[in-house]
Amino acid sequence: MTGTESAPDRIELRGLTVRGNHGVFDFEKREGQDFVIDVTLHTSVARAAATDDLTETIHYGELAEDVVGIVENNTFDLIETLAEHIADHCLSLCDHVEVVVHKPSAPIQRTFDDVRIRVERFRTTPVAASKGETGTAVPGAGGTDDGGTEAYLNLGANLGDAADTLDQAVAALDRHPDITVTRRSSLFRTAPWGGVEQNDFLNLGVLVSTTLSALELLSVAQGIEVACGRTRQLRWGPRTLDIDLIRFGTEDAELGSRTPRLTLPHPHAHERAFVLAPWAELVGDTRIDTPQGRRPLSAVLAELDDQDISRITSG
Question: pLDDT for 128-138, tens place per residue?
């Protein structure tokens, strides 16, 4: 597909109402107002319809939260700028997007129904989003022998049969034709993170080889979370399944990302023994990002000896 062609189908998110602080006047930034967002993604849904598999389509619930984050976490003078930022994010999911930003409470001293800005944007490098397509390798990202990119993911669960859920999640990752699980760590029991009273977690890490982009890999992981009953109601709270993308690439060729949806390397990996212990088991040692710069994983993990973590099965 070229940058000027449209996919045959559409996913439409209409009437998403979000409170934001955008406008040229000080009172608009101070008091805020409601904005209404419409997003149209031009993308084929044929494979998702045929397989009935959430991981084969764009998760519109996740899309809605991403758009909400862009509206709530930024302040722009112009809704043209807001629309451009939303469209730019959506182009990480598909090749052709239309975004309309409505400003129904615009400061106009006349009777009016609505003010809206509509932008339409095309991605020049197509997104490989369906099974059977070959994803474009990220320039500079560490490759594997099969032509894919290596990535490290950490999985955790503390609701229901957590061990079985983790087994199912690893199997689901490996079933994806563009993902191969190359190594799986031991199972670790870890104390909950974040101060929320709850059961201990079971955690493990996996190394994968993938021809997907980092965002596509994240989407697959989040689809598996949803399939296992994951909800996002309480930060650091109990969950059926959590899959975090920690590194995309290798130490010498690692993708850096700073978007509303994905930050790489994972910004808190150095703080969490439940991330580092399985990782160290898989790779032996590697240098990771910390506030003090790049340091050996083993040294950072040794400084987290106050965190309650124990190996309960061998990998």
Answer: 433 323 233 33
